[in-house]
Amino acid sequence: xFFQIRLQNYKKNRNFANFYSYLCNMLFNTSSIxxxxxxxxxxxxxxxxxxxxxxxxxxxxxDFIGNLxxxxxxxxxxxxxxxxxxxxxxxxxLLKNCATRQALLVxxxxxxxxxLGGFAAATYMRGxxxxxxxxxxxxxxxxSSGGKTGCNFLGVKNAxxxxxxxxxxxxxxxxLKSLPATEWLSGYAEMLxxxxxxxxxxxxxxxxxxxxxxxxxxxxxLIADSLAIKKQIAEADPYEVGIRKVLNFGxxxxxxIEAAYIHQGLxxxxxxxxxxxxxxxxxxSVVHTGCPREILTQLTHLMVEYYGKPxxxxxxxEQLMEYMMHxxxxxxxxxxxxxxxxxxxxxxxxxxxxxxxxxxxxxEALEYLFSI
Length: 372
Ligand code: GLY
Fold this sequence. Notes:
Rossmann fold, 2 domains, 15 helices, 49% helix
């Protein structure tokens, strides 16, 4: 089952309920992916996967599209490969196979494939069209829509990139079947974030949903709700000059933890790092912006029950602080100091952007996280 998200067709003034029925009206059966790709006005179809997707999802995709011809490229999986060398490999793949500006690139994979493939497409011959088919829960609810593309550079996550909208994002929840529990949890963390920043009902629905069951049927409407939140925010501020920064809730500290893991040669799950980041940032919200402590208690319980504690030696606060200094939300203030910029919460559904806090305050939140 697919639902298709086409930014151009969905106007931002519609409300969430309409959005859900919009998604339901767009339900595809799996065979219609072939019709969809056939209907794309291009004779040149290119498919990008990584080694994980090639093993688990490409056979399903190949079934969907039957004998439709395409060129396939498979990247090595893992965030360490989300770099400019891999982008160059995709450019080479397109060029050597004579891709013109009419070519269509299908990014079949998790967030690394959709981000990196989107960037390669956005820059190849000044931009070719691309379609994302996310294969992880995290990519379905976050990375594959909203137009952020890019790769890591000099150890800084997503330091190079563009805002370029995919032609479409095709969501097929049945692809989640092959995912390990850790991947489900990783995506679930980003869904929790959407609940916290935008919608108490979504937060409560997620808490009531039994992650142990990994039940795709009951998850599908929750995916639609999460996407509705993501889309409404991303469309209101496509270039992240203001309100879109709320989507970075949990990411200032989460990205720093993730960078510390990667620095040690480990491959963390992005959603786990975001969950840990959210715990620390809800702590900051309780202390600095009046967020009810009950939310911190609920999130801390979720962390203990499902995610455990960060295990890298990212307890070295100075190193984490250094990574936070590279966060893209930071601003240079009138005093010329680079300030670490947070999105915090006043309550569920009441985020507040551009909160700059002292190192002492940030250290206190890290202390809370690491002492759980
Ligand atoms: N992943 C956050 C955003 O798309 O803005």
